[in-house]
Amino acid sequence: MNDHFNNKEPDDVIADRFWETKTFSQMTSREWESLCDGCAKCCLHKLEDEDTGEVYYTDIACRYLDENTCRCQNYAQRQQLVEGCIKLRPEDVAQFDWLPSTCTYRLLAQGEDLPAWHPLLTGNSILIHQLGFSVKGKVVSENDIPEEDYEDRVIHWIE
Ligand code: SF4
Ligand code: SF4
Hints:
Elements lengths: L17 H4 L7 H6 L9 E5 L6 E7 L3 E2 L4 E2 L5 H4 L22 H6 L9 H4 L4 H4 L9 E2 L18
Parallel strand pairs: 2-5
Antiparallel strand pairs: 1-2, 3-4
The chain binds iron/sulfur cluster (SF4) (2 copies).
């Protein structure tokens, strides 16, 4: 259902714009992780149309997502705890089309640039929430929604 996002601190603007000069596979682990904008959209449950393969996002968040900070509460163990919490890897770039259209990994894989509010450009990891580009304030925990109701929770603000 889910995927990966990093729990980086609101730290540094990366001066050398490595994402413009390096391929995914040339990046260091830290650079790769820093591409994540912290939107947490990939931590929402998704439903797949079996006939068309189309993926629909719901507003139901993984139980380990802190809905206030949009950070994983158990990042180190996430893959052991949640089946389908996939670690994004550079070699999987061809499969990135299921990620939300705003996801940095998908944008770069499509040859697009980072949005102006990205933490790597601003040094500010809070801005994404203030501008409403994350899931903050818009989702419910899977702890509160029975699975038979998931189809009723499909959203269209994530594409
Ligand atoms: S959708 Fe992409 S940018 Fe957003 S949290 Fe997930 S991996 Fe990070
Ligand atoms: S375990 Fe953490 S990273 Fe994985 S989907 Fe849940 S909240 Fe997101």
